[in-house]
Amino acid sequence: MKRGPIILSCCLKPSLGRGHLTFTCFSSFSLSGSSGQRSFPNYSPKKPSIKDSEFVHHISSILKQRCYEPLRQIMRSFETKFRPDHLVWVLMEIKNDYTLVMKLFNWSYMRRSPSLEARCIIIHLAVAANDINSAHKLFHEFWTSSSTDGNTLLVSHFLEKLIYTYKDWGSTPHVFDIFFQVLTEIGHLEDARKLFDKMLNYGVVLSLDSCNLFLSRVSKDIGGPLMSLKVFQEFSEVGINWNTVSYNIVIHSLCQSRKTKEAHNLLLQMELRGCFPDAVSYSTVINGYCNEGELQAVIKVTEAMLQKGLKPNAFTYNCIITLLCKTGKMVDAENILREMISQGVFPDNVVYTTLIDGFSKLGNASSALRMFNEMQSQDIIPDVIAYTALICAFCQNGKVADADQFFHELLNNGLKPDEFIYTTLIDGYCKAGEIRKAFSLHNEMIKMDLNPNVVTYTALVDGLCKQGDVETANVLLHEVREKGLILNIYTWNALVNGLCKSGNIAQAVKLMKDMEVAGIQPDVFTYTTLMDAYCKSGQMNLAHQLLSEMLQRGVKPTIVTFNVLMNGFCMSGMLEDCQKLLSWLLENSIMPNATTYNSLIKQHCIRNDVHAATQTCRDMCDQGVVPDGNTYNILIRGHCKARNMREAWFLRKEMVEKGYNLTLETYNSLIKGFIKRKKYREARELFDEMRKKGLAADEEYILHLCGYE
């Protein structure tokens, strides 16, 4: 009678034993009819001579009789005569005593390497005794030895010997399953696949756990998702009934390769194939879409997950929160956090740190601090990443003192700051004009065996240049070069900006040429900085030449570049050129901003042409550009100058309603205008408003108001 394929049960449960994957239980085999399958050969070892038979029988008898004595003591008198063949023959005599079998094998192994046949027999006996851990170890030790590394022929030879010795030792097909696992674990994936196919010829289909292990390794090691899909399809055709774990492996592989749509399709097909997805299945796809920034797809899959009655876990929520933070949707991200907590899923350090970092990147230091405090209230200890995000938020908002406070809290908590934290603080102090403190941190950083990088030195150079100390900045740059650090575009730009601010435009131009010699091409910031310097010095022809050079080199100007030119034309009284530039921007679909129009409005007001200024503001609104606080301040001062106090008062009211603040100059212009029109009540109202805001009016106007009182 022909036997059908032996399907190893998917109920095999992996457990850890001596560092290897083993099985703790087995279930019965299911048999189905099939044709064309090979039978396992009958085992027929080399026959011993009469003399060898007597020797083997004598040893076997003594081993059984004296089994409680140390084996080395029993075998001492036989050691010189004991050959590898004797081991196999003795094993046949004592195979029913597994403990004695292992003692003899270990004794023999310590003296000489056993034959391949003996190894296979011992493995079969271990499986027969349900000592799966030892069987796994024997396979693993043999295949991780240097002599077998990458030897495909030896794999084939070993398998043939394992098949040859299969009968008469009480073994089960699980022996081939363990062999398959070991080959997979050590990365012999092609050999493992050949073993799988070979066993099909004998009607053996390997266990689902082993196939999942193979599927997982294939998805990571060779071919990625395409190979895992191929294996997934081919194995199912020969009797492997994949489970949820199997699908999750392939889904994960697809998502890792940014093929999330394909993973999503596979998720949808699971139920049609009689396999139900779990929270891991959905969370993996959600994470895939999150990594690709597909928020709508994330919402869709999450809704489907909830409809199935599956609850998102911490990983799911964290993925969604991370995506929302990356896209700046911090209100939505915090709402997800609240939902997460309401569902009994408690956020960890990663979730809170993600939110702190998200608020930090938006410059929302207060919300970042609120998340930080909430994190601590939940007894979650912040790590260096959380402190770094919070320190960045404060530095970005110019609150360096607060940043420094948390820096010292970090130190007091035993955490070690890295180069990034030091650089962030140094940059914060430089922007605040506290150069000494910045250099003090730089020195402290070096004492901590942290190496300042080019970003650190760029911050210091920028700080020195903004204080007008270009000479010291130059000296520092020479030191940086001596340390082997390569200056980047930001370092050069900081120095160019410093030279321009100090009025040394010629040196700035020379530096720009030095940049090119050093292999760094000037960018839009470099050109815009020089153009601004030319414009402010009234050299509009040179500024215009620089724009032409910039365009020829393929450096795309920003609206800031055009605003610099617009302001330069206005300052030079070249209103016609201003109008031409504005028309050119609109014709080329470059959208001006409020700053662009403000320069023109200001120039009209300087010329006392309030009508033209008002018309420019209307044109600005018609283009969809919203006036900012500066627009209102300029127009109010223009109307005050033209003694249009009714219009100025109306604009002031509209401005406040929109949340903009009047400047000191605007307050003084309004007060002056009302006093001249003898509108003392309005002037007094503005004066009180100024005082509440901590602004001081001109003494001349104060005396007028005192006289009025």
From TrEMBL:
<feature type="repeat" description="PPR">
    <location>
        <begin position="172"/>
        <end position="206"/>
    </location>
</feature>
<dbReference type="Pfam" id="PF12854">
    <property type="entry name" value="PPR_1"/>
</dbReference>
<protein>
    <recommendedName>
        <fullName>Leucine-rich PPR motif-containing protein, mitochondrial</fullName>
    </recommendedName>
</protein>
<dbReference type="InterPro" id="IPR002885">
    <property type="entry name" value="PPR_rpt"/>
</dbReference>
<keyword id="KW-0677">Repeat</keyword>
<dbReference type="InterPro" id="IPR011990">
    <property type="entry name" value="TPR-like_helical_dom_sf"/>
</dbReference>
<feature type="repeat" description="PPR">
    <location>
        <begin position="663"/>
        <end position="697"/>
    </location>
</feature>
<dbReference type="Pfam" id="PF01535">
    <property type="entry name" value="PPR"/>
</dbReference>
<feature type="repeat" description="PPR">
    <location>
        <begin position="348"/>
        <end position="382"/>
    </location>
</feature>
<feature type="repeat" description="PPR">
    <location>
        <begin position="488"/>
        <end position="522"/>
    </location>
</feature>
<feature type="repeat" description="PPR">
    <location>
        <begin position="313"/>
        <end position="347"/>
    </location>
</feature>
<feature type="repeat" description="PPR">
    <location>
        <begin position="593"/>
        <end position="627"/>
    </location>
</feature>
<feature type="repeat" description="PPR">
    <location>
        <begin position="558"/>
        <end position="592"/>
    </location>
</feature>
<feature type="repeat" description="PPR">
    <location>
        <begin position="453"/>
        <end position="487"/>
    </location>
</feature>
<feature type="repeat" description="PPR">
    <location>
        <begin position="278"/>
        <end position="312"/>
    </location>
</feature>
<feature type="repeat" description="PPR">
    <location>
        <begin position="628"/>
        <end position="662"/>
    </location>
</feature>
<dbReference type="Pfam" id="PF13041">
    <property type="entry name" value="PPR_2"/>
</dbReference>
<feature type="repeat" description="PPR">
    <location>
        <begin position="243"/>
        <end position="277"/>
    </location>
</feature>
<feature type="repeat" description="PPR">
    <location>
        <begin position="383"/>
        <end position="417"/>
    </location>
</feature>
<feature type="repeat" description="PPR">
    <location>
        <begin position="418"/>
        <end position="452"/>
    </location>
</feature>
<comment type="similarity">
    <text>Belongs to the PPR family. P subfamily.</text>
</comment>
<feature type="repeat" description="PPR">
    <location>
        <begin position="523"/>
        <end position="557"/>
    </location>
</feature>
